[in-house]
Amino acid sequence: MPVVSTFTQQNMPAAADAVIIGAGIQGCAAAYYMARRGAKVVVLEKARIAGQQSGRAWGFVRAMDRDPAETRLMIEGMKLWRGLEAELGADIEWRQDGNLFLARDEAELAQFEIGAARDRIFGIDARVIAPKEVSALMPGLTNPGPGALWGPSEGQAEPRKVSPALARKASELGALFFEGCGAIAIERQGGAVASVISEAGAIRTRIVILAAGASSFRVMRGLGLDLPQQIARFTCSRTNTLAPISRIAFFGHHIGFRQRPDGSLNLAEELQVDVDLTLDRFRALRWFLPSLRDNWRASTFCLNASAWRDLQCRLPWREEARLPWIHDRDPVVPANFARVRNAVHRFEALFPSARGVQAVESWAGNVDLMPDGIPVLGPVAALPGLILATGMTGHGFGMGPIVGKLTSEVALDGKPSLDLSAFRFERYAEGRTGKSSTRY
Ligand SMILES: Cc1cc2nc3c(=O)[nH]c(=O)nc-3n(C[C@H](O)[C@H](O)[C@H](O)COP(=O)(O)OP(=O)(O)OC[C@H]3O[C@@H](n4cnc5c(N)ncnc54)[C@H](O)[C@@H]3O)c2cc1C
Fold it and tell me: Residue 152 and residue 149: Cα distance in Å, rounded?
């Protein structure tokens, strides 16, 4: 039976200019920028558009305080964000009211000084401010700490709206999105990509964009390539509607929050790494030992239902075991309610005027981490035609539009308008990787 696109009601085509695996923000943005240039694109999504990380993020969009390789990308990325609502004809709750990161101590403040000076060389509006200025920006805050990193031009947007808006516009421009229909294999001819096998049949194509988030390593493993990607679980909550607190997106005193236009907060603990102990967690362990040592106190190792579910998916008689690229199609990712309670208590202590704060909805997402804290982007030398847009390491919502645009350029022009060499897949085999210093 032919599979029909959820968006356009069209059948799965026999051929396409490109097939994108995964309809998170990277896949949807790549589809949009390719469709805008007239390319015939098919997006395969094993579950739902933005069903994983991209619909579960907090919604911070920042250029400052990044790895220098990402900074250059985000300068262009911020320009794209500014025009996105108008281009897509959609409300994505885009605002540019600034990000404020309180320093934990004087040592972190000194680090912020160095980072802000570097960011300013790139033209990013970032500076360190004194406690008095912090209090003036956040009038209800009881403790401004030793000072903060302030980026008045940083932004925020609503994750539940952005990817669907990109997908809608891409489909208006001719892209075909198939939900509940995953990619299960790639066929080669002469060593290069020749077609993608979806759950509904084969699509001839010379270009595959892999944007499968925390499942990308499974696809790479099926191709005989080792992507040292790991998964950690991040929890977030939405609160009840509160009186106006601030339009600034805030990190500090171990929490992060932003207040949405309806008054509710997206609220979470700031640095949190819950690691569910499934078999795959041991796979790339050696790559992650240095950052594990640094983040040991913020990490929690959990033997829970995810481990049991993972084992079930491996039983040889189950569909999941026959389709390793699909594995757990739409994983249930449990929120960590101890972190939810902590975040609410800390918030109430910091903003005592905001009374009766309740987490009315809590969720978690499986975040895909790379050992050096930056994504893996661009072509793969071992398999011509395969382009990666993955490993976003907990900060890929903000990078989505620029990653989608650059990926579309690699696919259509053979090279991107910005240098992606720092992000190439081959860096791991070459041993040219640093340690992660990422802010999630
Ligand atoms: C709680 C939380 C808070 C966050 N906050 C922020 C933030 O404030 N700012 C920020 O910049 N980032 C944030 N992030 C990180 C950000 O959400 C991710 O980096 C980004 O969404 C990753 O997008 P993606 O498209 O790469 O992956 P995903 O959104 O995970 O999408 C991958 C898709 O691929 C599909 N897929 C997998 N395998 C297959 C297959 N074989 N065939 C077809 N489809 C397949 C999956 O079903 C999934 O839909 C947060 C993440 C979480 C969980």
Answer: 10
Q: 157 in ligand 1 pocket by Cβ < 6 Å?
A: no
Whether 55 and 191 have beta carbons less than 8 Å apart is answered as: no
DSSP 422: G
Which atom of ligand 1 approaches the CA of 364 most closely? 1
* Minimum CA distance residue for ligand 1 atom 50: 57
- Establish whether residue 150 lines the binding site of ligand 1, counting it when its CB lies within 6 angstroms of any ligand atom: no
> Using one digit for the tens of pLDDT, what is the confidence trace for 308-338?
888 887 888 887 788 889 988 999 899 999 9
Domains and CATH numbers, the chain: 18-98+153-430 (3.50.50.60), 99-152 (no CATH)
Averages of pLDDT over each 10 residues, the chain, 440 residues: 79 96 98 98 97 97 96 97 98 97 96 96 96 96 97 97 98 96 97 96 97 97 94 94 96 96 94 77 74 72 79 81 89 92 96 93 95 96 98 96 98 97 94 61
Report which ligand 1 atom has the smallest distance to the Cα of 181. 43
Bridge-partner residues for 101, per DSSP? 149, 251
Burial label, 324 (beta-carbon count in 10 A; 0-12, 13-18, 19+): middle
Beta-bridge partner residues of 257: 250, 267
Which pLDDT tens digit goes with each residue over 15-44? 999 999 999 999 999 999 999 999 999 999
Q: b/e per residue, 391-422, with b = 16+ CB within 10 A?
A: bbbbbbbbbbbbbbbbbbbbbeeeebeeebeb
Q: Name beta bridge partners: 43.
A: 20, 177
Rounded to two decimals, the pTM is 0.94
Q: What percent of the chain has a predicted confidence (pLDDT) above 70? A: 96
Q: What is the sign of the dihedral through the CA atoms of 55, 57, 62 and 63?
A: negative
